[in-house]
Write a structure and sequence with these properties.
The structure holds 2 protein chains of 2 kinds. Chain A has 10 helices and 2 strands; from the N terminus they run ααααααααββαα. Chain A is an all-alpha fold. Chain B is built from 7 helices and 8 strands; from the N terminus they run ααββααββββαββαα. By secondary structure, chain B is of the alpha+beta class. In chain B, β3 and β4 form a beta hairpin. In chain B, the strands form 2 sheets. In chain B, strands 2-1-3-4-5-6 form a 6-stranded antiparallel sheet. In chain B, strands 7-8 form a two-stranded parallel ribbon. The chains are: A mainly alpha, B alpha+beta. Chains A and B meet through α4 of A and α1 of B.
């Protein structure tokens, strides 16, 4: 890579775009599923969780990429863990100070960002071998790819489960009077898994290259 | 430099840990005041919730100042020992519950609103299955009838023990009696199987949340009993 490479060269744009579609961390790499199930009952926590994961992946990628030539390879996983853990604690503290309600809803899941496989996966696979700027884009891209799925799932779950979008009631009262009911089942985590499954199905039927050949 | 040598690895790890610790302590110190404020606001919201007043983090302060007309500390004999609002609010039950009964500071918050009347709000704290549970109980002026209750938990199992924080669990507490007809302190007893609905001295346990429910029963008994003399004198 030459120094004169533009900031958003085709290669760098791909780093941002691929995780959103053909290399999506949730639907294609199937990473980070557990938190995707847990925080998607409503849109608001899903959005906050997405932003938090995006921030953590991006900055962890940059930090590890900056340190990549100094990290002793025998303790590189520990170094990665310390960097990720420190960032997650900072995110947790910031949420407690500025978005207390949301931090209560997310409760343990913010702490569990540390164990989100997407982050460690990107650090190992990308940040250790690339310069900070591409690593940053890769982090933002993967965080966004994770976030997009979370938000799609949360949109349907909140709409069908609570009749609301981002906390605003959208299903009119007249519907309920006529006998419409919110679907209590979709609030539960298993339905999130099924929703993710449907997204994977739709994505694969549109993009045949994702289907493994036996 | 040889990045694979033992010395380098040890040095690297040590310096990294010290640096990270410094960054984290700095962040924690900077954000502490805001976090403490959030926790205070939450407590005010909880106190208001015990008398069924819904509030948002934005208007909690205002509603609290408007409706909580008096707050004071009593001792186990029922005498008022301090009428300082801030001191009452700051009492930490975690510390008080470890003290001997005679030495405990027992906070009381008096709520007053037209149309609802005057209620006494009593904070409670105990142990659930995985961690602390707490709450606020509001009493009618007769000192024996519960007007409303709210319970919070730190880490009870969602769907089981954590159900104590749901309104459906808390609503039936309204109207329960903690003294029997002869004036003896009875607190509330937990009962399995829903037979408790409508019974003045019993409440229904959470299915699958037995340890939490028992913790709640103990919490009510322990905390409310220390107010016995005060509640009797207020009749």
């Amino acid at each position: 890579m030459s120094d004169k490479e533009p900031l958003f060269s085709a290669k760098n744009r791909k780093l941002l775009k691929n995780p959103l579609s053909s290399d999506n961390p949730i639907t294609v790499q199937v990473l980070g599923i557990c938190s995707a199930l847990a925080v998607t009952a409503k849109l608001e926590p899903a959005v906050v969780m997405s932003l938090s994961v995006m921030a953590v992946t991006a900055f962890a990628n940059v930090i590890i990429s900056l340190l990549r030539n100094t990290i002793p390879s025998r303790i590189r996983i520990i170094v990665q863990l310390v960097v990720v853990a420190a960032l997650v604690i900072v995110v947790d503290q910031v949420l407690k100070a500025f978005a207390y309600e949301v931090s209560k809803q997310l409760s343990v899941f913010v702490g569990l960002i540390i164990t989100n496989c997407i982050i460690m996966g990107r650090l190992e696979a990308f940040a250790l071998g690339n310069k900070p700027w591409p690593a940053f884009l890769d982090g933002i891209g993967n965080g966004a790819g994770y976030g997009v799925i979370l938000i799609i799932v949360a949109f349907f779950r909140e709409l069908l489960g609570s009749g609301a979008i981002y906390g605003f009631q959208v299903v009119p009262k007249a519907f309920y009077d006529m006998g419409y009911q919110n679907n209590g089942l979709i609030i539960l985590p298993p339905m999130a898994l099924i929703t993710v499954g449907i997204i994977i199905w739709v994505q694969r039927s549109r993009d045949k290259s994702l289907i493994e050949s036996n | 430099m040889n990045t694979q040598s033992n010395t380098y690895t040890f040095l690297y790890a040590s310096i990294m840990v010290v640096l990270v610790a410094a960054v984290l302590s700095f962040a924690a110190l900077q954000l502490k005041p805001r976090q403490t404020r959030n926790i205070e606001i939450e407590k005010k919201q909880d106190i208001l919730k015990a008398v069924n007043i819904a509030s948002t983090p934005k208007d909690a302060e205002e509603l609290y100042n408007q409706f909580i007309v008096q707050s004071f500390i009593v001792n186990s004999k029922g005498d008022i020992t301090s009428e300082d609002k801030d001191a009452t609010f700051a009492v930490d039950l975690k510390i008080e519950n470890k003290k001997k009964l005679e030495e405990r500071k027992l906070p009381v918050f008096i709520f007053k609103k037209e149309g609802i009347g005057e209620k006494m709000i009593i904070p409670i704290r105990g142990r659930g299955m995985w961690g602390p549970i707490w709450g606020f109980v509001s009493m009618e002026q007769d000192g024996k009838t519960i007007y409303g209750a709210t319970f919070g938990n730190k880490g009870e199992t969602p769907g089981l023990g954590a159900e104590i924080s749901k309104p459906e669990f808390q609503k039936p507490f309204s109207g329960k009696q903690i003294f029997d007809e002869t004036g003896k302190f009875t607190s509330l007893a937990l009962v399995k199987g829903g037979g408790a609905v409508g019974h003045p001295h019993e409440f229904d346990a959470v299915s699958g949340g037995t340890v939490t429910s028992k913790g709640l029963e103990a919490m009510l008994r322990e905390n409310l009993s220390s107010y016995e003399m005060y509640l009797k004198s207020s009749k």
